C-alpha cells in the first residue's frame, strides 16, 4: 500500500460528500448559486446558514410582510438546548428586502412581494446576496416614493 492511498481515499470521500450535499443544479457557478423559495403566509421557513439554524414564518398585515424568525445554534435535534434563541421581527413593505448573514459566509435575503402575499427567500454566498440587495434598493430608490425603511427588532429569549 503506497503512502498516497490514504490521501486518495480522503480526497474521494471529500468529493463524494460535496456531491451529496450540493444544492440543485444551477446555470451559475456553484460559488455564485443562489437558492430561491417563495413562501405563503404562515408557511414554515427553515434554513441553516453556517453554525446557525433559522426558523420562522411571515404574515401579510396592513399591506406588508411581517416576518418572525428564531435564530439558534445549529445542533443535534436530540440534544438538549444549551443556549436560548433570538427572535428577529421584520416589517417589510412590498419590494423591500432585508438580509441575515452568518460569520461563515452564508446569508439569507428576505424580500416582500409586490402584493405582500408571498415572501421570497434567497440563500447563498454573502457577497452575492449583498449585491442583489443593493440592486433591489437602487430600484426602489428610482421608484416613486411609497415605501418606508424596513423595521427591525431583535429579542433574546
Output the keywords.
157 residues, alpha+beta, five-stranded antiparallel β-sheet, four-stranded antiparallel β-sheet, 9 strands, 40% strand, globular
- Please give the order of strands in the largest beta sheet: 2-3-4-5-9
Number of helices: 2
Arithmetic mean pLDDT: 77
Distance between the termini: 55 Å
Total number of distinct structural domains: 1
Q: Could you tell me the strand content as a percent range?
A: 35-45%
- Main sheet attributes: strand count, strand direction, barrel closure: 5 strands, antiparallel
What does this structure look like?
It is a single chain. The protein has helices spanning 5-21, 126-142, and strands spanning 34-39, 45-49, 52-61, 64-73, 86-92, 97-101, 106-112, 119-125, 151-156. With 157 residues, the protein is of the alpha+beta class. It has one domain. The chain has a 5-stranded antiparallel β-sheet, with no helix packed on it. A 4-stranded antiparallel β-sheet has the order 1-8-7-6, covered by helices on one side. The protein is globular, with a radius of gyration of 19 Å. It starts with a helix and ends with a strand.
Concise description?
The chain is α+β, with helices and mostly antiparallel strands.
Topology (SSEs and partners):
Elements: H1 5-21, E1 34-39, E2 45-49, E3 52-61, E4 64-73, E5 86-92, E6 97-101, E7 106-112, E8 119-125, H2 126-142, E9 151-156
Antiparallel strand pairs: 1-8, 2-3, 3-4, 4-5, 5-9, 6-7, 7-8
Amino acid at each position: 500500500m503506497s503512502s498516497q492511498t490514504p490521501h486518495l481515499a480522503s480526497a474521494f470521500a471529500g468529493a463524494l460528500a460535496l456531491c451529496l450535499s450540493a444544492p440543485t443544479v444551477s446555470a451559475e457557478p456553484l460559488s455564485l448559486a443562489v437558492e430561491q423559495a417563495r413562501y405563503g403566509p404562515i408557511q414554515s421557513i427553515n434554513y441553516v446558514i453556517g453554525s446557525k439554524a433559522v426558523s420562522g414564518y411571515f404574515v401579510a398585515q396592513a399591506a406588508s410582510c411581517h416576518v418572525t424568525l428564531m435564530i439558534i445554534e445549529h445542533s443535534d435535534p436530540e440534544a438538549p438546548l444549551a443556549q436560548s434563541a433570538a427572535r428577529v421581527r421584520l416589517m417589510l413593505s412590498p419590494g423591500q428586502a432585508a438580509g441575515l448573514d452568518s460569520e461563515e459566509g452564508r446569508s439569507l435575503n428576505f424580500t416582500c412581494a409586490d402584493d405582500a402575499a408571498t415572501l421570497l427567500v434567497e440563500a447563498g454566498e454573502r457577497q452575492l446576496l449583498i449585491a442583489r440587495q443593493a440592486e433591489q434598493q437602487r430600484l426602489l430608490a428610482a421608484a416613486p416614493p411609497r415605501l418606508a425603511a424596513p423595521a427591525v427588532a431583535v429579542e433574546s429569549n
